[in-house]
Design brief:
The structure is a single chain. This protein is α/β, with parallel strands linked by helices. The chain has three domains: about 110 residues, no CATH class; about 55 residues, 2-Layer Sandwich (Alpha-Beta Plaits), CATH 3.30.70; about 180 residues, Rossmann fold, CATH 3.40.50. Helices cover about 45% and strands about 15% of the residues. The protein is built from 18 helices and eleven strands. A seven-stranded mixed β-sheet has the order 7-6-5-8-9-11-10, with helices on both faces. The protein has a four-stranded antiparallel β-sheet with strand order 2-3-1-4. Helix 12 packs across helix 13. The longest helix is centred in the last third of the chain and has 19 residues. This is SAM-dependent methyltransferase.
């Protein structure tokens, strides 16, 4: 595909997303219809689409419309690319720009439009982050780094770096956790690398690894990952100590890949449904990586900030409270309840912990911490709760 054809494909996909398709669904549908597109073409088109979604408001201002054409025109203008070299109408290129398209477009207005944050969310975002709000919003407009977790049960960090380098993946240690690597070059080769295929490394953000690294684990503990999802933190837990490890999720289908991932990592994980999780209680540690706005990981899933509504945030807060209340009943008397989000919003972080403590006077918070997106990771929050 030519660069212009890739832009045309991105326009098609962005219009499908605007019409209601999820980004991944729209990308998959286009790829199935476009068998001629090679892996590099698919990667380039994906980058265009996600670059546009991360900066949707500011690009729409620059391009004069929130359509696929408007967003890609705005992206060209932002990046200093002459759109006339791509919008030619030749071959599979987008149609030439009209007189109207050439005439419209303006600099984004200062504030939430320039920061690519919805108007209603900006006060919540800025109140949570204070003087950091603008810098954090700017980070969310850019691509996320690629991080790997080294399975120290199978390899040292230096051994993993060497093995990955042999397969064309260049990494350096990341300071957020002793298991963390940042990929500098060759990210697209990770999934075919020997170190990934044999379980020496897993894809996982460095702050997510730091959340697990902060937990006081010891051999023999019964540990439950209550909101396991795909199991990234489950595997990180199991790599740190010899645990009796359990995983649960309100939507069990999210855990469908966990058994194979655990097998690759050399771990045994017991998957539990809603009834079994109570019967197997109590647990020495229950980790609740709760559903949240994802505002700390909007670089990876930029749709989230445009789909979030005030009502949706209220519902997330209610769900977070319910999960904490239920999980507290699963913790052994001397055990720990750990709470985590990939959110930067106080409404999902400290406020939820304070609300839990108000409802449960027999509990206390021993530790809480945030990881800012400006630090080179996703934005995360974690807290440790124990009984008095």
């Amino acid at each position: 595909m030519t660069p212009a054809a890739r832009v045309a494909a991105a326009i098609e996909i962005l219009d499908a997303i605007r019409a209601g398709s999820a980004a991944e669904q729209a990308l998959t549908g286009w790829a199935r219809r476009s068998r001629f597109a090679g892996s590099k073409d698919r990667a380039a088109v994906r980058d265009h689409v996600f670059d546009a979604l991360r900066a949707r408001r500011s690009l729409a201002a620059l391009g004069g419309a929130e359509t696929g054409r408007g967003l890609m025109l705005g992206l060209c203008r932002r990046d200093g690319i002459d759109p006339g070299t791509l919008f030619t109408g030749e071959g599979h290129a987008p149609a030439p720009l009209s007189t109207e398209e050439l005439a419209v477009g303006r600099a984004p207005a200062p504030g939430p439009e320039a920061m690519d944050i919805p108007d209603w969310l900006w006060p919540v975002f800025s109140e949570s982050l204070g003087e950091r709000a603008e810098a954090a919003a700017r980070v969310l407009q850019s691509r996320a780094p690629v991080h790997l977790r080294v399975n120290l049960a199978k390899a040292s960090r230096q051994d993993a770096i060497a093995a990955l380098a042999a397969d064309g993946v260049t990494c350096v240690p990341h300071p957020a956790a002793e298991t963390a690597l940042e990929v500098i070059e060759g990210a697209r080769a990770i999934r075919n690398s020997a170190a990934y295929l044999d379980g020496r490394v897993e894809l996982q953000d460095a702050a997510s690894q730091a959340v697990v690294a902060a937990l006081p684990l010891r051999d023999g503990m019964r540990v439950l990952d209550y909101c396991a999802g795909g199991g990234g933190k489950t595997l990180a837990l199991g790599a740190r100590a010899r645990l009796s490890l359990f995983a649960h999720d309100a939507a069990p289908r999210r855990m469908r890949d966990l058994p194979a991932r655990a097998d690759r990592a050399g771990l045994r994980v017991t998957l539990l449904d809603g009834d079994e999780v109570g019967r197997k209680a109590p647990y020495d540690l229950v980790l609740c990586d709760v559903p949240c706005s994802g505002s700390g990981s909007w670089r990876r899933a930029p749709e989230g900030k445009w789909l979030l509504t005030p009502e949706g945030l209220d519902q997330l807060n209610a769900t977070q409270d319910q999960i904490l209340d239920r999980a507290a009943g699963l913790v052994a008397p001397q055990g720990m309840l750990a709470y985590a989000t990939c959110s930067q919003l106080d409404r999902e972080n400290g406020e939820r912990i304070d609300a839990f403590l108000a409802r449960h006077p027999g509990w206390r918070c021993d530790w809480r911490r945030s990881w800012p997106v400006e630090g080179g990771t996703d934005g995360f929050f974690a807290a440790h709760l124990t009984r008095d």
